[in-house]
Amino acid sequence: MLKRIINHLVLHRDDIVILDMEAGLEHLGRGTTSGMDQFIVVIEPGARSVQTYQNVKRLAEGLGVKKVKVIANKVRDEEDEKFVRAKIPEEDFLGCVHYNAEVIEADREGASPYGFSKAATDEIRQIKKTFDAMTEKDTCSNGE
Q1: Number of helices (H) and strands (E), helices first, in the chain?
Q2: Which DSSP letter does residue 74 get?
């Protein structure tokens, strides 16, 4: 049923639909996400997380989804960022959200981290700018 609802939303309207899927690959195996234009995978700076991105990318291609972008989360320092940048192709990398105690505190209080941490908010805004620039570039290069 979820697959039918998603396909209706994505394939029969000119809307943007964002699905926050649970971690893991099960939803890709069920084909719930067929018909999507792209995926954004949130990873952490570790080998297993990078491997999950690679598996998502492989499975996405099988579903006809050509674009898989990455946001690195809980990045602690320059070493973490270098690790992620070395493993993720530049054209797939949207940016980093650094480990942030204010975000953890917001979660404890059940509040949105967006208003809790200027640093996190600034990083998210930069990721959005990068995403918009990549989308514009893709649109221009496809002649649309």
Answers
A1: 6, 3
A2: E
